[in-house]
Write a structure and sequence with these properties.
Blueprint (H helix, E strand, L loop, with lengths): L3 E4 L3 H13 L3 E7 L6 H5 L2 E6 L10 H10 L4 E3 L9 H9 L3 E2 L4 H8 L1 H10 L15 H11 L3 E5 L8 E4 L2 H19 L4 E5 L5 E9 L5 E13 L2 E7 L6 H17 L4 E9 L6 E7 L6 H8 L3 H9 L16 E8 L11 E2 L2 E3 L6 E5 L6 E2 L6 E9 L2 H14 L1 E3 L5 H8 L2 H5 L6 H5 L1
Parallel strand pairs: 1-2, 1-4, 2-3, 4-5
Antiparallel strand pairs: 6-7, 6-8, 9-10, 9-12, 10-11, 11-14, 12-13, 14-19, 15-18, 16-20, 17-19
Pfam family, one: CPSase_L_D2
Keywords: ATP-binding, Biotin, Ligase, Nucleotide-binding
Organism: Pilimelia terevasa
């Protein structure tokens, strides 16, 4: 097993990785910005190094600062968490070039899947279903209008280098496409340094389903079931569950087989997620993108499959066999994750602030992965995620009941939070029925 790991992240995911590292006897090293000095992950690490000011570009996204901290502390490995540098192929390559183990996929796999156009084409060649769309980047409005004739309206305009729901817009007709194309291209150039745009058929009613894969040290790729991620605001997830209430055994088999093919196409190692769109009317699914890292919502897979995915990441990076039997994988019960954000529960606008009270729910089947505590501060410099409230039950009805009780018992005073929204969601007839899609929040508002 790896002797030490530097966690190149912050908040709840840094605590999450540190927790498993300590259980495995791995020395855990935290890096933190000046704004995060008082957060729990800093004190819980065996060692901590300040790497810069609040601005992520000068701290958590500063490759030189992170590598310097790794060398200073003699870190044997780096775990990037999610966000920040986790899908930066140049960073992964620099880690390896400096003789440090990278707890993630090879840089080549990150590069291959980081460009949505290239990823689409790779998946199509591997026999993974893809939605109708463009094969090459669309450079001008004229090209976009011509391509739309073949793809059809409504159409999704997407930044090729985008992610996390950013750099996307829907056009219902040619006039809207001309406007949205320029907006997305400009946004992509500013945010990602790459203005390449692709077009895909937009499905007005769709479910967002993803499959957790793990590329093992021996070269095999295995799938650990699916997660339902259709509760979204602004194309960004706020609640997930596993298994999906829309997926039966046959569809699960097809989804997992496609996800394994996707991983095999890029010789994938370590944890990754293949995201798909599911047409609930036809049962057809299409490849959306592949996230070459650990997902925010990984805990629901851990609870339903009984596998510590962070431990498995360590094992793969160390060249060890998995800590579970891939041939015996099967889900047990049902899990739901609620992303507790520092945001207004009606308009979902950020609401950072000092945390005066923080009381987490407890009880059977309840897990809280949190980044904050009482007397800490949620600053405006980073993502608004404060904690992940995760519940597990024998079936979906029990999981929903436990989630309701846990939401009621979770007390946060200071920053705004979206717990009232989750109380509403868990009583919503559409959600409770399991027959919902990505438009559910819009219909609740």
């Amino acid at each position: 097993m790896i002797e030490s790991v530097l966690v190149a992240n912050r908040g709840e995911i840094a605590r999450r990785v540190i927790r498993t590292a300590k259980r495995l006897g791995v020395r855990a090293i935290a890096v933190y910005s000046e704004a995060d000095a008082g957060l729990p992950f800093v004190t819980e690490a065996d060692e901590a190094v300040c790497i810069g000011p609040a601005n992520p570009a000068e701290s958590y996204r500063n490759v030189d600062a992170v590598l310097a901290a790794a060398k200073q502390t003699n870190a044997a490995a780096i775990h990037p968490g999610y966000g920040f540098l986790s899908e930066n192929a140049d960073f992964a390559r620099a880690v390896v070039d400096n003789g440090i183990a990278w707890i993630g996929p090879d840089p080549e796999a990150i590069t291959a899947m980081g460009d949505k156009i290239n990823a689409r084409n790779l998946m199509a060649a591997a026999g993974v279903p893809v939605a109708p769309g463009t094969v090459d980047p669309v450079a001008t409005v004229e090209e976009a209008l011509a391509a739309a004739e073949g793809v059809g309206f409504p159409i999704m305009v997407k930044a090729a280098a985008g992610g996390g729901g950013m750099g996307m817009a829907v056009a219902a007709d040619a006039a809207a496409l001309a406007t949205e194309f320029e907006k997305v291209r400009g946004f992509a150039a500013r945010m990602f340094g790459d203005g390449a745009v692709l077009l895909e058929r937009y499905f007005p009613r769709v479910r967002h389903i993803e499959v957790q894969i793990l590329g093992l040290a021996d070269g095999r790729v295995v799938a650990l079931g699916e997660r339902e991620c259709s509760v979204q605001r602004r194309n960004q997830k706020v609640a997930e569950e596993s298994p999906s209430p829309a997926v039966d055994a046959d569809l699960r088999s097809r989804l997992c087989a496609a996800a394994v093919r996707a991983g095999e196409a890029v010789n994938y190692r370590n944890a990754g997620t293949v995201e798909c769109l599911l047409d609930p009317g036809t049962g057809e699914f299409f490849f959306l993108e592949m996230n070459t890292r650990l997902q925010v919502e990984h805990p629901i897979t851990e609870l339903t499959y009984g596998v510590d995915l962070v431990e498995e990441q360590f094992r793969v990076a160390a060249g060890l066999a998995p800590g579970f039997d891939p041939a015996a994988l099967a889900p047990t019960g049902h899990a739901i994750e609620l992303r507790v954000n520092a945001e207004d529960p009606k308009r979902f606008l950020p609401g950072p602030g000092a945390v005066r009270t923080w009381v987490e729910p407890t009880g059977e089947g309840v897990r809280v992965d949190s980044g904050y505590a009482a007397d800490t501060t949620v600053t405006p410099f980073y993502d608004s995620l404060m904690a992940k409230l995760v519940v597990h039950g024998a079936d979906r009805a029990e999981a929903i009941a436990r989630a309701r009780a846990a939401v009621s018992a979770f007390t946060i005073e200071g920053p705004k939070n979206n717990l009232p929204f989750f109380a509403e969601l868990l009583d919503n007839e559409e959600f409770v029925s399991g027959d919902y899609d990505t438009g559910i929040i819009g219909r609740m508002r």
